[in-house]
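From the thread on structure requests for the teaching lab: each student submitted one protein with a one-line request. Submission from student K.M.:

"Model Glutamate synthase (NADPH) small subunit from Roseicitreum antarcticum, tokens only."
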Amino acid sequence: MAQQRMLQFVTVEKQTPEKRPPNLRKEDFGEIYREYAAEKAAEQSGRCSQCGVPYCQTHCPLHNNIPDWLRLTAEGRLQEAYELSQATNTFPEICGRICPQDRLCEGNCVIEQSGHGTVTIGAVEKYLTDTAWEMGWVKPIKPHAERGESVGIIGAGPGGLAAADVLRRAGVQVTVYDRYDRAGGLMTYGIPGFKLEKPVVMQRIEQLAEAGVKFALNCNVGEDVSFNALRGQHDAVIIATGVYKSRALEAAGANAGGVVRAIDYLTASNRKSFGDDVPEFDSGELNAEGRRVVVIGGGDTAMDCVRTAIRQGATSVKCLYRRDRTNMPGSQREVANAEEEGVEFVWQTAPKGFEVNDSGAISAVMVEKMRLGRPDATGRRAPEVIDGADYSEPADLVVMALGFEPEDLPTLWGEPALEVTRWGTVKANFRTHETEIPGVYAVGDIVRGASLVVWAIRDGREAGDAVLTYLNAPAQVAAE
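Reply posted by the TA:
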């Protein structure tokens, strides 16, 4: 009977959740995808082929047991399906919303490769967890016994929170330190609400706080408290700071008024969604309303910026990217959503400089056209400038979304023993995430460089387990 509910991909077509019409969704910051109904979630889950070697699971950084919870969903066993998804993923409702499934699980679905259209894994995962919250299946975190050891976690993003979850469930005392006034990292202040509504993040943070995780917010390590002090206060420390230093563009006029960093622009917008007082937004400095906006970059951050500008009421929004659509790093799904909402992509272009008016504000971007040449060291075709094809693109607001780099933590924290790579990322063991300093671990983007939320979650979970092994080691030695 159960098998009859599966293998429906031959007769049932792929159907993604309905999107709100572009003319409506660009008027607010609500999520654009509607929720599956129970029948539709079961129908789409039943398309899974239950293949013996599930490539979807293999290509998921968390190795979620996707085929099994799809089968349970198809059978209507939703609570069991949720519990199975939660077993390997600290934040399944967040991954269901913001993971690039087209590059991970869904992009490697066997029936997708055979031409039948992928199973909509992300949408089912989102549906399962949202249903679990509504039905009360998400249980409070209650350790079986309290432990005396404490762990300090620097950074309240997905990696730090995932580690806190693992450690607190084991009864360890956990304090999370973060420079911002709210926990969540880029999930809170970097990703717009139309991809990840903030109550979805806040409910997980509240769950951790109710479980006894302490949050020391507005705390900048290296200024408000020293790294050495944290090491002295805790039995182990996990570095999960992420990477927040924006890559700069060395070009004439780059410091003009109206040229802003993507992280500042997105943070201001997200703060407004919380109802915060944001002077830089109210003054127009970080607000696209009524302005000609140019976003420079081709990653997911650039996609967040162009779609935010549309919702703020920009006169026009253009995105400059030096390669073509096929070679851009951002999600193709996000590009399609942006185009539907009115964003214009200008492929194979790059800024050469900026024209500045008499008041010191940006008036135009000097653009040079590119063509793709031979592959570079990464295997991607390198962009080359086309001589004599420059032109000016009028602009009132330019958002630089060129990616992020790690801050110089050894210098900022006065800790030269903290080893970093030539890229500035912290050196850590690939499996245990321990650094060269005993009892100090590092996870997420500060180790990998700018990456995906799901990878940070995986690192945090692994580091949490490694820290438990480390904390148990003295007791084992004493017992011997």
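TA comment: The first helix runs from residue 22 to 25. The chain has 19 helices and 16 strands.
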